[in-house]
Structures are given as C-alpha cells and as structure tokens.
Design brief:
Glutaredoxin; alpha+beta; 4-stranded mixed beta sheet; single chain; 5 helices
Length: 163
C-alpha cells in the first residue's frame, strides 16, 4: 500500500508542478531595439517632448540582429543622448516584432536596408528617410563625420542661430 501511495505521489505531484508553471516573456534580457516595447507610445512621447523643446525626432529602425543597427545605436546614444536637438526613438524590426503598422505609417520602404534613419519635425512630419549605407566608412564602422553632417543638416536651427 505504501508503494502504491508512493507511485501515485511520484507521478501526480511532478505533473502538477510542471503544468502549473507559467511561461513568461523574457524581461531581464537587455535589448537595444526592444521587440516588446510599445514603439507607437515611444514615438508619441518623443513627439510631445519635441513640441515642447522645438527639437527634431530622430527615429532609428533596426534590430539587435543587425551589426550596423547595434553600431548606430551606440553612436547615436553617445552623441545625441543629452542633446537638445533630437529626441531619439529606437524602433525594433525583427522576427519577434516587425512593427508593420508603425513602419507603414512612417513610410519606411520595404526594400530598405537596416538600420533606417528618419528625421521628423516637431509635428511628426517626415523630413528625410534614409538607410545608412552612405555613412559606412568600411566593412566595420561608420564615418562619424558623415553622420555628424547628416544630423547637423536636419537640426531645427543652425548652430549660429538663436533658438
């Protein structure tokens, strides 16, 4: 009889434990282009801030799967994170989340390479959409002078002007 209870216990309890476990999305993994983020909300928040500060919104569409996207993320974060000129928004494009509705709304071409840079004015109007092939210095890094010229070209004001 003890063996019977032991066998029942051995088969029933572990199955209860294994079936009661809940599968959760990974939240502790650090994403640069977070596939679980609400990209529309991030863009809306950046536009609200942009309207208050009269800055531009610089949208980067890419994914952690892309070497060039990760490189662009690092460059822009270092150069513009504390800038008054641009609000940065990083939108994921990956197999986990393609953000198709938002990318269609922003008119991102489907045949574009990644990452894609989009500059929006404070009202959300698209000023330029470009891939980043022209900014590549070689097969491993971007030409930082060309990137600086690009972001300076689309400033809300020229550096010598007053806000």
């Amino acid at each position: 009889m003890k063996r019977l209870f032991f066998l029942i216990f051995l088969f029933i309890v572990p199955s209860k434990i294994s079936f009661s476990q809940e599968v959760k999305k990974p939240v502790d993994k650090k994403y640069l282009f977070n596939p679980y983020a609400d990209a529309q909300k991030a863009l809306n928040d950046a536009l609200i801030t942009s309207q208050k500060t009269h800055s531009r919104v610089l949208v980067v569409v890419g994914g952690d799967w892309s070497y060039w996207s990760r490189l662009m993320y690092g460059h822009l974060l270092m150069t513009h994170q504390k800038s008054d000129n641009y609000e940065l928004v990083f939108i994921n494009f990956s197999s986990l989340n393609k953000n198709e509705t938002l990318l269609n709304q922003l008119h991102v071409p489907k045949d574009q390479g990644y990452p894609v840079l989009i500059v929006l004015d404070e009202n959300g109007n698209s000023l330029v959409i470009t891939d980043t092939d022209d900014f590549k210095l070689n097969t491993q890094k971007y030409n930082t002078d060309l990137l600086a010229a690009f972001t300076e070209k689309w400033l809300p004001y020229k550096p010598n002007d007053k806000k």
